[in-house]
Amino acid sequence: MLKKRFNIYFGIILSLFLVIICRLFYLQMIEGGKYSGISDSKRIMTIDIDTLRGTIYDRNGEILAIDKHSFDLSVSYKKLYGSYICLKNNIIPKLAEKRSRTITQSLCKECHPDNEVWINRIAELLKIPVTDIFKQSVQIVEKVEKIKNHVERRNKREMYIREETVPHAIFTNISWENIAKLKVVIPKINGIEVDFKPMRWYPKQNLASHIIGYVGKLNSKELNDYNFKKRWFDNLSEKNESELEYFAHKSLSADSLVGKTGIENIFNSRLMGIPGERFEEITLDTLQVNKIILERPPISGDNLFLTIDSRIQDVAEKILGKQRGSIVVMNPWNGEIIAMASSPRFDLNTLSKNFTSISKNPDKPFLNRPIQSALPPGSIFKIVTAIAALEENSIDENTHFTCYGSLKLGNTRFRCLSNYGHGLLNLEEAIQYSCNVFFFETGRKLGGTSLSEWADKFGFGNVTGIELPYEKKGNMPKAASMYQVMNLSIGQGAMLVTPLQITKMIAMIANGGWNIKPHILKKITDDKGNILLNNDLKPFDRLNISEKNLDYVRRSLRKVVTDGTAKGVGFGEFRVAGKSGTAETSRKDDNHAWFSGYVPFENPKYCFTVIIEHTSSHGADAAGTLALKLLEKLS
Fold first, then answer.
1. CATH superfamily, with its number, for domain 42-74+198-306
2. Is residue 101 pLDDT above 50, yes or no?
């Protein structure tokens, strides 16, 4: 009985196998040609779905940068390559001759296999020259071919790359009127489509342009040299290395927009997000989508909240106007940057159109002056000289020097601001009236080694570490001679500092010697508003400075405003303490005018630095006046 059942089961299984074998034979041998034709005519295409770049806000939730909807006209690479061949075969002159008449199909047969006169139709609809479309085609093809050559050299064989299989945008941000026209014509032209693309938009135009930065496409060097192993995607840290590399490759292609400068650059990995994917079955001869097989949605980038207050930033920028210079406003207790203005500026929304002219502007609008303009600090550095001399016991409150208007060392005469001299004065009075001779004498007693050490403690000669690219560290030279020591003691010579470094120094005076890290990021959230990072920084250590010496210097800085070099500015009701500085250049009547201070004197809320570059005026007159206008708006 058991053997009979076994034979039945075995017979059933054998029958099923015979059915399957027969079916396979039929499909492959009898109907093979049919399905081979279908296979040759259809392909699976992977389409990237653009993701939204994260939004950048100020501290109060005001939008500084956001993605908005844009419509692009995209053309298949096959058509673009045909246009490229037209140029190489010198067919453009023939097209130009026939511009007033319809371009004949016989002419386009030389480079367009589908015999569609698409260039002429698009040019007429968008009211643009035919040559503009050729130029766009050439730029895209040359870029793709360069990438293809690099990939083939690396793999040592011929191969297709993704950029050859996807459409490329030849015109972006097309108006609604033209979109309506294109929608009527496009269905009749294979390989051309209108795509929705996110476009970076800056609602406040040129506000904080140096801080925000701008985005652009990866150039060929960046594509070839980029280290995909680098963990760009911090929010995917739980994934393994191969997955991270895959997402990096998906997010970075020839058409990817990445941050080039500013916050857009430093936090590019957070802002970019990850594109989605759609797998489509297409018919090769028409390039029409047959069906969608699978779709993976994109992941939006994270949102950034900055410490910047848009209102105060706007005030600072308007105060600077068209003058070359910068203004920094910072919280002296935690290092939050409230405003950081650089002038001249540029409009982020029109940057691509004006890039060449901005690049050639001799005033260097792209220079982020608060962190990149390294200049001699002039008399503001006397604050550091005073602290160093007091702490090293080179001088004290009772030390007096007599100023006769100059001081001679060897064959060199070092001059004071006053040709007639300030007479006998102590440190408080020397700071109050910014007496060079007093600080020459102080520098001689202090020595270059101690002066350099204290400059380093206050951060000079080092980057502050703010979350912005290309910050300069300036230059704090080691004094090799007494001549150099005396020059450095008043902020001249080879010393170079940035406005942000000066702001950090004055903040440490205001907060009691606590070391802080200037920063511009407040928090990071995901697209649902969940906080991923709260950048709540605190002072991390304190300089070994006696409270007595600090109080003495702070009282002296208050005297600068009430009775000294900045008395004429008119700070009046504002309880300001600060120091003016005039750094001379090699040219006559060409100075860098500084004013740096904090307010209110008793319990500082803001510290600030104002500098006007290359002016004939002096610190209090030029920079101090702007500082007063700033404080009027801060209150």
1. Penicillin-binding protein 2a (Domain 2) (3.90.1310.10)
2. no
